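Hi team,

Filling in the usual template for the complex we talked about on Friday. All components are listed, including any nucleic acid strands or ligand strings, so the model treats them as one assembly.

SUBMITTER: L.P.
PURPOSE: interface mapping
COMPONENTS: two
RESIDUES: 288
SEQUENCES:
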Amino acid sequence: MKDEKDELLDEMFRKARFMKPDTGSVEEHFETRLLAVMEEKRNDQALWSAWSWRLVPWLAIFVVIVGIGSFTIDPVRSSDLFATFSSSDDDYQITNMLAGG
Amino acid sequence: MNFTENDLSDERIIEDVLAGKDGAFIQLVNRYRRKVFAMTARFARDKDDLDDICQDIFIKVYENLGKFRGDAPFEHWLSRIAIRTCYDALRKRRREKGHIPLDDIHYQIADESGEELLVAEEARSLLGKGLAELKPAERLVITLLELEEKPVREIAELTGWSEVNVKVRAFRARQKLKRILEKHHER
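RESULT (copied from the run log):
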């Protein structure tokens, strides 16, 4: 059930409905501004895309260097899977744990 | 028989836009610009904000036009994007506290008799202050329901919320507005 405040609010809404926003001045040259923003966005995307393609060779070189480095700097390789799991650090931790350290 | 730009259907213009014709998109913008501005003006805080939101809406339309399936009229699809963008703008504004709205959007009234205009302007201004204190979802619902006079079902379709949810939000918004206006009267 509507009370007095509801009726007051309804009356305010009714009055406010009469007021239609006049957007004429903002609408002027809207298409021009919109096209400019869209063009700017497209250029930004094109620039980013161009840069990302230019970075691809450098990234490939980096990956190759890291690959070569990992083989040359750390040449200790073992075909024994257990040996790869039990590194010297693990042995140290296990000894510590068993000794209550 | 020659077709003028106005005779072309929305679907035909959309096909042209998707084929890469920017001119066709401007036709679409010109066709719906007035409607989008009128709807958005209820949520914008000033002219710059209105311009920004409308640009956002049409950019989203342009970027998502390929997803428009055509099973509902283009106008409905556009309205949904417009409402979602307005809602996002309201939420963003709530996070940016301390902004003083300029309220420089002009309003027209059908019957411009001095007293009527003054009363309507006062009501709009007071309501604007009250609406600014509501949560974005509540403000969106109450504006569409009471100022745009849209039915609950349409609001549910536009927002993607259930009809019950819309009614609950509208009820809460009314209760809050009553309290805010009451406080304002007490001052």
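MY TAKE: The beta strands of chain B are 106-109. The helical segments of chain B are 10-18, 22-41, 47-64, 74-95, 114-132, 136-147, 152-159, 163-186.

Thanks, L.
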